[in-house]
Amino acid sequence: MSRPFASVRARATLAATLVVAVALVAAGTAVLLSLRSNLLGEAGTQAERSAREVATGLAFAKPYDDLPLDVDDRPVQVVDEEGRLVAASEDLERISGTGVDAVKPQPAATARDGGDDDDDDAADAADDDDHGESLEPGEIGARTTVSDGSATIDGDTEDYRFAAVPVETEDRGRLTVYAGAPLSAEHGAVNTALTVMLIGFPVLLAVVAWVTWLVTRRALRPVEGIRREMAAITASEDLARRVPVPDTHDEVARLASTTNETLTALESSVERQRRFVADASHELRSPIASLRTQLEVAAAHPELLDLGGAVEDTVRLQRLAADLLLLARLDAGERPADARVDLAALAREAAEGRRGVRVRAEEDVTVAGSRGQLERVLANLLDNAQRHARSAVEVSVRRDEGPHGAGGGGQTAVVAVADDGEGVPAADRERIFERFVRLDAARSRDDGGAGLGLAIARDVAVRHGGTLTVRDTPAGGALFELRLPGA
Asked: Are 373 and 336 in contact, with CB atoms under 8 Å apart?
């Protein structure tokens, strides 16, 4: 089941918008909490200031009527140590949050006559508000208790933050002053900030989404150009075309460069494949045509049958087919087997029965790989050496403790095949490893083969993690050196 298409631009825009939304919500929450905390702290400070102003008057033995109880229409209560309200703001109609719900002061005599358990409970509450702080007469308590509540003054009900300050008087004992500061500013500021956020955040998110959409469209425009060109290349099968490389020197430019490099390698591979097929067809045509001619002649004139030539063409055709099959497997990336192969024994077996071939080998020079493929490499090298040698071919097998070119380190096994022929010109030392290449154009196919032996040898060496190179011997002949990582 196919999934619905979603563009990179849409996903990037959605992701950016979500990230910004989360950040805005977190930042907005922090701002609201900080704003509310600061405003509550300021209200508490104002309430404490009012309470201490009244407590200062009490400390100086001012009468209740001379206390600043109605400043700025803020609720104020003065409670004695028995929990009775002895003074309050004039227009106070209702109050909560101070622990004393009374709003009208009680005469002292009347309050004393009714001494009962309720008075004791109120006194205990007042003692709790004082936190057990010991004060001298005329001294104001250093500790302030803060609480939240509400009050109704002259018909208007608001929320307040109350501060309770104890004061010790000489003639009236311990008194507690409750003064409130309105929280309307705090509520107004928080509500205003919340309204601004509820309106501004969606607008900001819309702007972020729009900008992200435009930016990603601009950033992905080269990618779309690459995609269109690749689609055109696929449709036309023209591997000579290349995708445009933007001048941004960023990841998209590197993607375009890598894509062009891949197209170049693919074009080279396809061209090599076409050339290989053409050369293989040409090489196969000769032995097949020769064999057919001989069979047709034999069918018409049995006495003229060249049986030896027919067998020779058949063997040559068989070898060529085997070479082409091995090259096809190597091109397909077939991994060699992981068997241990003794190169010294393999060299002696390959040289056995060959005239003029001498082997000098150290013992126990082993590598990991395919015995059949490595045997084919040695056979091809020896065939090539014997084809160009004047009289002698020498094979040496040894261990080299130096770093190996392909493996990067460790023991290296080296097989060298040297002949006493004319050698290989420096300009042709890489070309001879190409497929179907013969340096001697005048040499017949029967003598020179199809030009696949050295190409197969190098391909096998590379597949085994090694190298195959050629240089001159001191005597002037060719020296082929196969280097493989030791087992």
From this structure: yes
Strand partners, 483: 414, 467
Q: Which residues pair with 417 in a beta bridge?
A: 395, 480
Please provide the average confidence, as pLDDT, over all residues in the chain: 84
Residues present in the chain in total: 487
**Looking at residues 136-161, what average pLDDT do you find?**
90
Cβ contacts of 132 within 8 Å, gap of 6 or more: none
- Identify residue 163 by its one-letter amino acid code: A
Task: Say yes or no to pLDDT of 95 above 60.
Answer: yes
Q: How far apart, in Å, do the first and last CA atoms of the chain sit?
A: 49
Q: Which of the four pLDDT bands, split at 50, 70 and 90, describes residue 289? A: confident
Helix (H, G, I), strand (E, B) or coil at 55: helix
CATH of 339-485, one of 3.30.565.10, 2.160.20.80, 3.30.450.40, 3.40.50.300: 3.30.565.10
Tell which CATH architecture fits domain 252-331: Orthogonal Bundle (1.10)
**What is residue 71's DSSP assignment?**
G
User: Residue 294: what pLDDT?
Assistant: 78
Mention every residue, 6+ apart, whose C-beta is less than 8 A from residue 177. Answer: 51, 52, 54, 55, 58, 76, 77, 78, 164, 165, 166, 167
Distance CA(367)–CA(411), nearest Å, equals 10
Domain ranges of the chain: 1-224, 252-331, 339-485
CA angle 188, 191, 197 (to 5 degrees): 140
pLDDT in the model for residue 138: 83
In a 13 Å sphere around the CA of 403, the CA atoms on its Cβ side amount to 5
Predicted confidence (pLDDT) per residue in 202-230, tens digit: 999 999 999 999 998 888 888 888 889 89
440 in helix, strand or coil? coil
- Tokens representing 380 are 């091809």
Nearest CA to 84 out of 34, 130, 33, 120 is that of 120
Q: Which of 44, 151, 46, 141 is nearest to 88 (CA)?
A: 151
pLDDT in tens, 14-41: 999 999 999 999 999 999 999 999 999 9
Give phi and psi for 2, each to the nearest 5. -80, 145
Give me the DSSP letters along 134-182.
---TTPBPS--EEEEEEEEETTEEEEEEEEEEEEEETTTEEEEEEEEEE
The one-letter amino acid at 470: V
Q: Of 111-120, 205-214, 237-246, 315-324, where does mean pLDDT reach its minimum?
A: 111-120
